[in-house]
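Bumping my old thread because nobody answered last time. Still need a sequence for this structure:
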């Protein structure tokens, strides 16, 4: 009865096809459910599964970005820093504040010949795009 409400196109489907549809629905729901042990950040967004790198799709340029700026380029830098475990996911907010500044400086210090000045210039953008995860967990913000 419930499946007929959810899937009105079944019409006069037979019991075996309803069972198959029910199993497919259960499999889909299970696949979309959060993984065990996954936690949400303070905005309610689920944490990415261990070992994964969520896609950063805010900005694809290399315009210099620095402390005090806001916008898509900042969100992109923050997302890339979070992917590389230099920034908490909850800090990806599109505002280049103190926590992002420290994350950029730490990333730059770990990737010579970058100068740890906290400014995301062309060389830092390139390193952010091409670097793999370096840290197991984000460094604490001082």
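Sorry it took so long. Here it is:
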């Amino acid at each position: 009865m419930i499946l007929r409400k959810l899937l009105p196109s079944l019409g006069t489907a037979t019991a075996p096809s309803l069972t198959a549809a029910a199993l497919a629905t259960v499999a889909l729901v299970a696949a979309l459910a959060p993984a065990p042990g996954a936690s949400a950040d303070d905005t309610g967004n689920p944490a990415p599964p261990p070992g994964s790198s969520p896609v950063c799709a805010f900005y694809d340029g290399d315009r210099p970005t620095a402390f005090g700026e806001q916008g898509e380029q900042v969100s992109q830098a923050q997302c890339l820093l979070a992917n590389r475990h230099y920034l908490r996911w909850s800090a990806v907010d599109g505002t280049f504040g103190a926590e992002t500044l420290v994350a950029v400086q730490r990333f730059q210090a770990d990737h010579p010949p970058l100068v740890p000045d906290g400014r995301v210039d062309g060389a830092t953008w390139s390193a952010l795009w091409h670097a793999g995860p370096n840290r197991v967990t984000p460094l604490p913000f001082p």
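The longest helix spans residues 15-32. Let me know if any region looks off to you.
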